[in-house]
Design a protein that fits this description.
The protein is mainly alpha-helical. It has a single domain, classed as Ribonucleotide Reductase, subunit A. Helices cover about 70% and strands about 0% of the residues. Helix 2 packs antiparallel against helix 3 and helix 9 crosses helix 11. The chain is globular, with a radius of gyration of 18 Å. It starts with 20 loop residues before the first helix and ends with a helix. The model has no long low-confidence stretch (mean pLDDT about 95). Bound molecules: fe (ii) ion (2 copies). One fe (ii) ion binds next to helix 5 and helix 6.
């Protein structure tokens, strides 16, 4: 059961004068990725096939992700009436598919899979919090706040199951760190770049480098230091390190510097 419904969004407060064109592009891309949550549920059901409790939780989780997609899609169609979500979603899933035909995690273990899920939820919770804090269009602001709260709950959910699996499987500190770093670097892979392309540039040929840059230039620009620091603390916790320990401040400082430099360089290059 989702914790909220589309009827709880104040759609009638939509204010077209407060719509930021870069945020519209990002929201369209996010809607496609979120709405594809059903595929991830299928994947997780295959990986955790004999764990009925987890499979039930994963089904509810996917329903919430799909609802995120539906809410964002509806807002994007209000902000840009020329946007056709259904056509864009078809284009996205025609060109981007995760491997569903598996019976074990691509992370090497179930604990590794759960570490990776925690990293994804860290990324989404900090992203929607950053968008909400940057956006004064009332409807999108309300949607992003609700989604950010869900993503934080998803992190806690996967973290709870991670602890259970760490008692059964051998995944040491190095293994957790390796999965965490691996999943972070994948954020620049095809999924987001292809979603950005399918939502915003369908008439042109797909070029991963170009659309990954266009996405990152816009998305990274909305993060403030507190979003980044909280995200780093969540990554440290998922990786089995002290979230408030001595690594937090230097890593957060580095991440702020890196993201700002990336936005500046991509802007200078016209991304
Ligand atoms: Fe989501
Ligand atoms: Fe989530």
């Amino acid at each position: 059961m989702a914790h909220w419904t589309l009827d709880q969004i104040p759609w009638d407060r939509f204010d077209p004068t407060r719509v930021d064109s870069d945020i519209v592009k990002l929201v369209k891309a996010a809607a496609l990725v979120e709405y594809n949550g059903g595929d991830y549920a299928t994947y997780l059901r295959n990986v955790f096939h004999d764990d009925d409790a987890f499979c039930a939780v994963a089904a509810d989780w996917a329903q919430e992700e799909v609802q995120h997609g539906a809410a964002l899609a509806r807002w994007a169609e209000m902000a840009d009436p020329a946007f056709d979500f259904d056509a864009s979603f078809k284009r996205f899933t025609d060109g981007y598919r995760i491997a569903l035909d598996v019976n074990a995690s691509v992370r090497g273990s179930r604990a590794g899979e759960l570490v990776a899920r925690c990293i994804v939820e860290t990324g989404t919770s900090s992203y929607y919090a950053a968008l909400a804090d940057s956006c004064d269009e009332p409807v999108l602001n309300a949607i992003c706040r609700k989604i950010a709260a869900d993503e934080l709950r998803h992190y806690k959910l996967f973290y709870t199951h991670l602890r259970r699996y760490l008692e059964q499987e051998k995944l040491g500190a190095w293994g957790r760190l390796r999965v965490s770093l691996g999943r972070i670097t994948e954020s620049e892979d095809d999924e987001l770049a292809y979603a950005y392309y399918a939502a915003n540039h369908a008439a042109e040929p797909y070029e991963r480098k170009r659309f990954s840059a266009a996405y990152a230039r816009r998305a990274y620009a909305y993060y403030q230091p507190p979003h980044i620091e909280r995200g780093i603390a969540m990554v440290l916790k998922a990786a089995g390190l002290n979230p408030q320990g001595p690594l937090l401040k230097p890593l957060a400082g580095f991440a702020v510097w890196f993201m700002r430099r990336r936005v500046a360089r991509l802007s200078a290059a016209g991304a």
